[in-house]
Amino acid sequence: MADNSKPDLLQLIKRIGAYLSTKISKIFVTQDFRSVWAIAGFAVAVIFTYRALRTPNGSRRRQTKSQPPSPSTSGFNSHPNENSLPSEDLRAQSTTGGPIQPANLTLGQIVRQRLSDGRKVTCRLLGVILEENTPEELQIQATVKPSVLEVLIEITKCSDLYLMERVLDDKSQEKVLTALENAGVFTFGGLVKDKVLFCSTENGRMSFVRQLEPDWHIDSDPEITSQLARFIRHQLHISTKTEQIASNVYSSSSLEQFFMV
């Protein structure tokens, strides 16, 4: 609307200029200097009025130019990056089908997110890392689950991992260490043999966990898991059965299933 009034305003100023020119010529003829001051004041008023009418548009243009670009036009990605996904959403575990794997995340990033960046993890061997489920089976052989290897190595990269198990004799202990070594756990991961602990009783294994005070403990024994629930912040119970042990205990059919592998 202000742009449409500009031609009219300019025409008015031209007419005022012509009028002033005529008056000034008459003043110099009659030498009426009081009229000069009156005309000068009138001219100043016209100039200020003209500038006042132009100022709002000019200010708006300057403000528009100085306004920073909006995220939608500057190419700025306002969505959170992949490392900021909520840990609770990633840890949510369905006892039937499991959660959907977040897109564009590597296995290492998923492991860190699901463990909530836990710096220390303890884990039993039987039924979780090993195919065997009883100490008696370890007297015959020890076999590392191929499906768990990739996840296990990623855990060693981001956490201080301790493996532990109850054994019946020294030969069983040797079989377990040999199986882990042949699977490449000590080569590709950050695990060392000194962090593979053995004991002769289940109470001894539970004592290991309490002394180490991990952020996470992984176990397949519901009794041990239940007793440790008061002392350990998070636990993962590996079982094919659907059972709720405590509010801070998550359940999964396998270690790799928990990490959606």
Secondary structure: elements and pairs:
Blueprint: H1 6-30, H2 33-66, H3 71-74, H4 87-91, H5 107-114, E1 120-124, H6 135-138, H7 149-158, E2 160-166, H8 170-182, H9 185-188, E3 196-199, H10 202-212, E4 216-219, H11 222-228, E5 234-238, E6 249-252, H12 255-258
Parallel strand pairs: 1-2, 1-4, 2-3, 4-5, 5-6
What would your notes on this structure say?
With 261 residues, the chain is α/β, with parallel strands linked by helices. Helix content is 49%, strand content 11%. The protein has 12 helices and 6 strands. The protein has a 6-stranded parallel beta sheet with strand order 3-2-1-4-5-6, with helices on both faces. Helix 1 packs antiparallel against helix 2 (33-66) and helix 5 (107-114) crosses helix 7 (149-158). The longest helix is centred in the N-terminal third of the chain and has 34 residues, at 33-66. The radius of gyration is 40 Å and the shape is rod-shaped. Mean pLDDT is 77; it is low at 58-100.
Widest β-sheet, arrangement of strands? 3-2-1-4-5-6
- β-sheet strand percentage: 5-15%
Distance between the termini: 65 Å
Largest sheet: 6 strands, parallel
Number of DSSP E strands: 6
Low-confidence stretches: 58-100
Helix and strand content put the structural class at alpha/beta
State the shape.
rod-shaped
CA gyration radius, whole angstroms: 40 Å
Number of helices: 12
Q: What is the string of helix and strand elements? A: HHHHHEHHEHHEHEHEEH
